[in-house]
Amino acid sequence: MGTESWKSRYDAIVIGTGHNGLVAAALLARAGLSVAVFESRPVIGGSCTTEILWDRFRVSTAAYVCGILHPRIIRELDLTRRGFHILKREPSSFTPLPDAGYLLLGPDDTFSAEQIARHSQKDVAAFQQYERDLEQIGALVEDLFLAVPHSFAQTFLTTILEWAPVATRFLRLPPSSRLLLTQMMTSSAWDILDQRFHSEILKTTLVTDGIIGSPLSPTFPGTGLLLLHHTTGSVTGKRGVWGYVQGGMGALAQAIADAATEKGATIVTNCSVAQIVVSNGQAVGVALEDGSVISAQLILSNADPKRTFLKLLDPSHLPEDFVKAIQNLKMSAASFKINLVCDRLPNFTVLPGDQPGPQHRGTIHLCPSLEYIQKAFADYFANRPSAQPIVEMCLPTVVDDSLAPAGYHIASLFVQYAPYQPEGGWERRKTEFVEAVLRVVDQFAPGFSSSVLHVHALSPQDLEDQFLLTGGNIFHGDITLDQIFSFRPVPGWSQYRTPIKGLYLCGSGAHPGGGVTGCPGYNAAKVALKDWKRRRV
User: Fold this and answer.
1) Which of 191, 232, 290, 476 is the most buried (most CB within 10 A)?
2) What is the distance between the alpha carbons of residues 318 and 121, in angstroms, rounded to a whole number?
3) CA angle 233-334-341, nearest 5°?
4) Please, where are the H alpha helices in 282-422?
5) How many CA atoms, within 13 angstroms, populate the side-chain half-sphere of residue 296?
6) DSSP string of 63-84, one letter each residue
7) Is the separation of the CB atoms in 481 and 277 below 8 Å?
8) What is the 3-state secondary structure (H, E, C) of 491-514?
9) How far is C-alpha 339 from the geometric centre of its chain's CA atoms?
10) Angle, helix 189-196 to helix 175-186, in steps of 10 degrees
11) What pLDDT, on the 0 to 100 scale, is given for residue 151?
């Protein structure tokens, strides 16, 4: 990998080394195709990357935890042999209250039950039932992640035949699981949890999975869908529980890249694709920023839909109704990422200690109540960064000491809500917002801000500029009912193919959507290979 020379012609070109693009490249190369992957940044992985900051700290600059990577992809690409290892976090989450009390959860069922009982004895059985239902639902949804969605162009009979196995599996779910799945597809995350649990600290801990990356309040219908999306994974061995990648998220990207290069794929960094070349309605190659034109019969774009179809393509090659649909895609900004280097761990008032303890190992939820979350959202709705933001804090160095020198810790803060273009602009508001975030942490762990040695902050506009995420949207498009499955990216084009023959969408803008799943890349490669073989018959 690097700036080595490349050929003028390949069977397939992948645009971008985000993890989905690398998965697609690995599958295509494994099938015997000559494959080149072009990456504009100096490091591979897209948003799934580890970068060296401040000379000696290995930081997962964008994506920071792993929970929904598909097990089949891990097996087929033999990622464990290639150095991909999940580090479990025990406990997996910690939610402190501002005055007194806290909640630790998972992944051990007995431990979670003991912790929940401190707040509500009734919630123990309810939580156990919730987890049983999620296990049933997750197995079904995880399989659907590797299914190519049906197209509205298909015949009624074909659609019925394709959906019959899914409908049968749905009907075989226990009644409580069917109910929960139906609610997740239609209701708000808060309503789902409020119906099942009494303790607010439990509800606020769980509801964050329904709003992370979303521009919605947890009481809005549709947030149940994101709650479902984030609780389907089983990569840690426990459904819905997330872990750290040893060596940072870039270690996962590197393992996938190794699977691709082992089969002959060429990966080139510091090399931007300026345009997808089209001739007579067929993608025939890419033009690089240096003017080089590289030919290929298959082009797979790991860029988001708006960047792919409105910037890398001349829209005149596309049907007008398709262009309009892409222009209307909802790609909302909501998230702000902060990476810190600290000389000590946070010392939480409700669970004191600045040496590694259970409160430091998992995700730390700093959003103690629904009222707190609603106030943060109200600011965002008024196009202001939240005055008291929702903060999800992770301290990966507590579990993985390879990331920083002894005596230092990396803190990863994923923050909401942050509009794309707030009043006054991010040039003025960015420092203010970082200070507001640190004040929130200080409320729960007094003096934490004084431990901060380095700050690396990414506003939604930074996410767009540096990681090419249009609108700062981490999912390549909002995950809402009108933008999933057969509607992703737009109705009629959900099967990874595009109106340009030979051009495929392999990033998170395709089914099943955002997060580090690998599934869009896997599915797109399978579809492209099917078309490739058909051409040669």
Assistant:
1) 476
2) 59
3) 80
4) 305-310, 320-327, 358-361, 370-381
5) 30
6) ---BS---HHHHHHTTTTTTT-
7) no
8) CCCCCCECCCECEEECCCCCCCCC
9) 17
10) 150
11) 76
**190-229 exposure pattern, b = at least 16 Cβ within 10 A, e = fewer:** bbbbbebbebbbbbbbbbbbbbbbbbbbbbbebbbbbbbb
Phi-psi region of 387 (alpha: psi -120 to 50; beta: other; left: phi over 0): alpha
Torsion (CA) 20, 507, 163, 77 in degrees, nearest 10: -10
Instruction: Dig out the tokens for 360 from the structure.
Output: 């430091």
Is the CB of residue 348 less than 8 Å from the CB of residue 486? no
Greatest alpha-carbon pair distance for the chain in Å reads 70
Predicted local distance difference test score (pLDDT) of residue 6: 76
DSSP letter at 32 equals T
> What tokens were used for 233?
């994974």
Interatomic CA distance for residues 337 and 62, integer angstroms: 7
Name the strand (E) or helix (H) holding 447.
none
| Structure token pair of residue 206 | 């769980």
On whether the CB atoms of residues 271 and 1 are closer than 8 A, the answer is no
For residue 13, what are the β-bridge partners? 36, 299
Residue with tokens 């990356």: 213
pLDDT tens digits for 44-66? 999 999 999 999 999 999 999 99
pLDDT of residue 3: 42
**Pairwise CA distance, residues 306 & 472, whole Å:** 12
Structural domains of the chain in order of their starting residue, each with its CATH number: 12-83+248-329+474-535 (3.50.50.60), 126-227 (no CATH), 332-467 (3.30.519)
The β-bridge partners of 335 are 416
Q: Distance between CA 286 and CA 468 in Å, rounded?
A: 18
Under DSSP, is residue 29 helix (H, G, I), strand (E, B) or coil? helix
Q: What is the pLDDT of residue 269?
A: 97
DSSP-based three-state secondary structure for 339:
strand
Find, among 460, 518, 466, 519, the residue nearest to 41 by Cα: 466
Q: How far is CA 291 from CA 278, 391, 502, in A?
A: 16, 44, 22
Ranges under pLDDT 70 in the chain: 1-5, 152-160, 537
Is the backbone peptide bond immediately before 107 cis, with ω within 30 degrees of 0?
A: yes
Residues with Cβ within 8 Å of residue 259, at least 6 apart in sequence: 22, 26, 30, 77, 78, 79, 82
- Name, in order, each residue with C-beta under 8 angstroms of 441's C-beta and a sequence gap of 6 or more: 346, 366, 391, 393, 413, 448, 449
Using only C-alpha atoms, the chain has a radius of gyration, in whole angstroms, of 23
Structure tokens at 39: 């990456």
The pTM for the full model equals 0.96
**Could you give the residue ranges of the DSSP H alpha helices within 31-155?**
71-76, 109-117, 122-145
Measure the CA–CA gap between 535 and 537, rounded to whole angstroms: 6
- Do residues 395 and 65 make contact, with C-beta atoms less than 8 angstroms apart? no
* Rounded distance between C-alpha atoms, residue 60 and residue 75, angstroms: 24
- Residues of the chain with pLDDT > 90, as a percent, come to 92
Q: How far is CA 269 from the centre of its chain?
A: 22
User: In the sheet that 282-288 helps form, which strands lie side by side, from edge to edge?
Assistant: 273-279, 282-288, 293-295
